[in-house]
Design a protein that fits this description.
Helix content is 38%, strand content 20%. It is an alpha+beta fold and 325 residues long. It has one domain: Beta-lactamase. Strand 7 and strand 8 form a beta hairpin. Helix 5 runs parallel beside helix 6. The longest helix has 15 residues.
Length: 325
Amino acid sequence: MTITGKRINSRRMRNPPLQVNLRRGASIESIHRVHAVVCDSKGRTLMLAGSPGYETFTRSALKPFQALPFLSSGTAETINTGERGLAICCGSHAGTPIHAREAFKILWDSEVDVDSLQCPIPFNAKSPLEHNCSGKHAAFLATCKKMNWPLESYLHGQHPLQVEIFRRVAELLGLPAEELIAARDDCGAPTLRLELSQMAILYAHLGGSKNAELEQISRAMLAHPELIAGDGRFDSELISRAHGQLVSKGGAEGIQCISRIGEGMGIAIKVEDGSRRAKHAVALHLIRQLEWMTPIGLEELEEKILLISPGVQLEVEGSLKFNEP
């Protein structure tokens, strides 16, 4: 079944979507429409551009919340995984030996065979440990082993592990779990279709201090940004340069989520056409508007992340506006 985002009438919006232009020389070559929302952990929409009700899949931005059973079951403590192991569970990593080794360690310490991993083997790779989701899958399997749940069906939507993940997400959003809509992600695990504001609320919780497990997860991501994505990749570079203030996690098809640590605020971004370059440009644009990083840090990130080729640049039109009742 294919599910797409809601059709949005931009004329009825309080603040239209952001627009990212790819400019080649003096001419605009490509245009991307982008929705963005800022929410707090109480569920309030604080600022917006476009539609906070835009529905789409969370994709890999769900990973920090998929790691919750790994903690609540006592699995992480039993195998003494530490912050590095917890960080790799949340990462969409580059598949380097460092990343694969951290995922393998979770399986080794849990006495689970690598062959139990059901994430695909990437092109030109030799092992599923090199898949960008291997840390998440390793944590899934370790949790199942600890709880005596079936290993072979750990990706099924009705498996106890996935049911528990849905329950925890629904609890954070104040929804009945049966209202959540799931579909298969590219790695084989279920992902959830949510409103953009609901993603921002989840990330507001991640950056808050009221949930001990989410605080532990955010601390691990802050301590080891290199395991969240990899050298030169957006999430790792942003976390590293934000000096403990921001946690960032992207997902495929134009999803980007950011937590403001200690303030219980989250940003969720969706590019309608799924462009990666557009979501990164908007994320930096909004961080500048919100003054969540120093200008120097932002300039360094822009030079590292947004550099395309000589004579070509990305420009973002529009800004967040306060949500008026």
